What we know:
The protein is mainly α. It has 5 helices and 2 strands; from the N terminus they run H-E-H-E-H-H-H. It has a two-stranded parallel sheet. Helix 2 (25-34) links the parallel strand 1 (17-20) and strand 2 (38-41).
Amino acid sequence: MVRELREEMTTSHIPIVMLTAKSTIESKIEGMKLGADDYITKPFSAAYLKARIFNLLEQRKNYRHCIAPVCCLHPPNNLWQGKGNHHSGPLAQRPEIYG
């Protein structure tokens, strides 16, 4: 499920924290390779979990503030170009904002 969430554009930005009883290093590495932001084993501290979630959300917020202006100024080419038509991508349909 983690891999699917990471591959989907609408959910790829959501922080993922795995809470599990699997505590082997192999399980932890596998969780991280799948795309988890953190891997916490049971038993866990609710205070630690809350702090970790807070930090992840703050990181995402800070990243959004830093990268959003750059994305809007220099969007990737595939947002301008649609399939088969040079200027039919989602941003090409809104030139008043991005053009």
